[in-house]
């Protein structure tokens, strides 16, 4: 494939009339376990003293995620190319060469064999090299789980204005992906720092400040991985035709499910119990004693996204577009309602009861939140997606010396 050359419409030092000299772009791919997403950000830096401003974002996504192409890496890379072609139209040609493009994969690729993950990433790297954009070193890779949380924390606190000026009152974040889940907050009490395992604390420099954050990514505790764990199928050699059953599924259900390139057969407890109570106990086995419970989060409020948002929206706990504010007990109430009336919800996903119960158990018994802990569910702040990708782009631009 031929590299697209910068057309010589403008002499080197002249900008198009409507593009400000201090405007720049960054392209960040989120290769998640359930889909691949492109975020094309436009930034303006008015002065070296100010934080850069996000002027806009173009967002698009494709499904399935890269890990579904474990045995066809070229096809996986093609899905990335489709998205990258959008950036060619979105970024003015004279800035192509100055616009970095990066892809960071999360838990889906973390769970593949190194060989398969590498094959996918190297095909993607080729797509980048053939594009007209700036391809930094390490432009394609698997992101460290702790960075996922930190960068999402940066995004949310930047967008809500907590990283500029004095009097910063930062907010913690909860992200529930397909394969992993993250919790990140800035501890306020010395006690928290003392009782937290060292590898849960990370110092991070951003916008000339150092933040010491509590962050952890639990691999295998994403919503879809938790479904498999509840069914007893996570990380198992699946024997052909083997059936996994759960009290969290409709009694008569028998079906197949593909995740991470493996086919699973699953179904309801035909003869045995179903409903919220037995389901809660089943899910509890997956979660109990597996997560660190920092005392100070019990009384604070958190921003929650990804599957927390999706399942709340699916069950009308919040508005799909606008999001909303919930308490932990709202998830429990909804889980009860769905699990004890599965026949009424049979047009929705057969996993709805299990998913809502898992969210409830994860929040209450996993992290140790109270029933009345407040969760702010948001997809966007000021029209910008609340994803780790914005924080990652800031970090990238900073490392390239493009922001202050
Ligand atoms: N930028 C985004 N905008 C909207 N939803 C997102 C975004 N990123 C992730 N999600 C949601 O997160 C969930 C899955 O997380 P994903 O990123 O695929 O898994 P993981 O983080 O475990 O690799 C899905 O419900 C998906 O809709
Ligand atoms: Ca994710």
Automatic annotation (TrEMBL):
Pfam families assigned: GDA1_CD39 (PF01150)
Record-listed E.C. numbers: 3.6.1.6
Keywords of this entry: ATP-binding, Calcium, Disulfide bond, Endoplasmic reticulum, Glycoprotein, Hydrolase, Magnesium, Nucleotide-binding, Secreted, Signal
Compartment(s): Endoplasmic reticulum; Secreted
Positions annotated to bind ATP: 178-182
MF-aspect GO terms: ATP binding; nucleoside diphosphate phosphatase activity
Subunit comment: Monomer; active form. Homodimer; disulfide-linked. Homodimers are enzymatically inactive.
Family: Belongs to the GDA1/CD39 NTPase family.
Name by which UniProt lists this protein: nucleoside diphosphate phosphatase
Classification of source organism: Eukaryota, Metazoa, Chordata, Craniata, Vertebrata
